[in-house]
Amino acid sequence: MLHADQQQTRSILSWPMGSLAGATWPHILVTLGVTILGGVTLVGLTKSSTQCLSAMKQRSQ
What we know:
The chain has one domain. The protein contains two helices and no strands. It has helices at 6-14, 25-60. The longest helix has 36 residues, at 25-60. The radius of gyration is 22 Å and the shape is elongated. The protein starts with 5 loop residues before the first helix and ends with a helix.
């Protein structure tokens, strides 16, 4: 049977949940910036592809 002390259990459980215990503000701000940039890019690509698909649908009719 496996036996883990409390510290091992905490580290095992916090890793998949994304613990921010060791994060610094500069790291958080960079991550936030990349996340926002990625979100804006995805929204832009979605609108662009939707317009393209609509135009293709209109041409085929």
